[in-house]
Amino acid sequence: MALSLTNTLIADMEAVLANPNVPGNRAMIDATFGVDPSLHFPSIVDTVAKLKTGTFPIMLPLAKINPALAFTFYDATMSPKYTQFGRTFYAQRKKKTCKYSQRAQEATLIHEATHYLADTGDYIHRGEFLKGSDETQTSRTGYTGRLDPYETIAGLDGDIAWIKMRDGYEPKIDPKVPPVKKMHINAESYAQLVSIAGHAAGHLMPNISDIAFVVQDKY
Ligand SMILES: [Zn+2]
To answer: What top-level branch of life does the organism fall under (predicted)?
Structure first.
């Protein structure tokens, strides 16, 4: 993966956050972080600034047997130690069944870097995000319903798992489940923002192989 592309994409995110009241930018921020009053916008700006200047240690690839895309490891005091990426992360797109694109690689890199540099988390407890270093056990996560990050706001808005988390929902029996709070520490929000902002800026287009498949699908 080209580091120059990563730096370009971080600048794309920075540009969106620098002018949050421009309608297009506002829509990207709202789609990826929600509009909950608990959202702490300055810490989003701060996290992206850390992505720009910070570094984080990466270990050799995860063992073949491990199906995970990537992992950030913590020590006994729950300080992040390093990140490992799985074989899926390094795999080139060769088959139609492989949905893993360069866009997904970039988004995963950003996701893991925010864990390390800004203590972002993946898990939700009692309706709010936990920091990555929080030891609370929970099974509710802040992921979307698919591996590939979305290219557009419309795409992300069509993801049921995401909109239930971001906007809340009305279960059949129980009262309304409110939007999840503290999305500014959701690692996946940064992954979705880098994908959508990068695509909007023309820096993260589909892979050539993706385009080839689109053409092929028409026949
Ligand atoms: Zn994560």
So the answer is: Eukaryota
Q: What domains does the chain contain, in order, with CATH numbers?
A: 3-217 (3.40.390.10)
If you measure from the C-alpha of residue 122 to the centroid of ligand 1, how many angstroms do you get, rounded to a whole number? 5
pLDDT per residue as tens digits for the range 62-100? 666 666 778 888 888 888 888 887 777 766 555 444 456
Q: From 129, 2, 128, 111, select the one nearest 51 (Cα to Cα).
A: 111
Query: C-alpha distances in angstroms, 61 versus 55, 65, 82, 86?
Result: 18, 11, 12, 6
Ligand 1 center–CA 134 separation, angstroms: 13
pTM equals: 0.86
Q: What angle do CA 173, 175, 179 make, to 5 degrees?
A: 125
SS3 of 80, please?
Answer: strand
- State the average pLDDT over residues 144-154: 92
